[in-house]
Amino acid sequence: MIWLVHLLDDPGPVLAEAVRVVRPGGVLVLTVNKNDGHFEMDSDLAASLARARPDRARHVEFDDFATVTGLLRGLELVGETTFSGVGQGVAPAQWRRWLAAGTIRWMRTMTADQAAELDRSLAALPHQEVARADPRYRLVAFGQPLRDRSHPTG
User: Fold this and answer.
1) Which of 32, 38, 40, 147 is 20 to 30 A off residue 138, Cα-Cα?
2) Which pTM value belongs to this model?
């Protein structure tokens, strides 16, 4: 389920079905906290975005790790890693276009004043058309609790 959960308005039914169909010994792999990848880089762009992004305590993403974990009842975390979104670094000018178009979900929750402030902040960054570093994304694997797993014997 890589690049899926963040697109769902209600991930509950999809994740419940995933739990149902994971076979004994099987693993469900998915991305979580997709939007965090653009905020955790060390760049001028990430700093501008992080200042403008709504408080995560009030704005939980649909692919938030804690939310996903709560919906995957019966499975537990069995592994995780990160990976680079190769070619997914974004330039400030592109973020400004997304802001104007209302493309990004969290940006649509901003007031007009907040959006204007973010636009000013992004416009002030140098090299408007130069993409910043590729974001890093979190990949997690869930499976049946170890105590419930059966291991095939030869």
Assistant:
1) 147
2) 0.74
